[in-house]
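Session log. Operator J.P. requested a structure for one protein chain; no other inputs attached. Running the standard single-chain path with token output.
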Amino acid sequence: MPTYGKLDSFDESEDWTQYVERMEHYFNANEIDEEDQKRDIFLSVCGKNTYKLIRDLLAPAKPGTKSLAD
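Structure written below.
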């Protein structure tokens, strides 16, 4: 299956809500339905600053153990 579009890292100057909307469109266009897969894709492309913030906020839990909604 071809991949449509590209999910860029989150740019801190960008509006978070708009980033989430674009991410949802990316998942829909590429028929990505599984929540674990969505989480893993997001965590792999979100960027180092965003990943660090997520990791710090969830500590001591690891980001890979939570859902996107968490």
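Operator note: Residues 28-62 form one domain.
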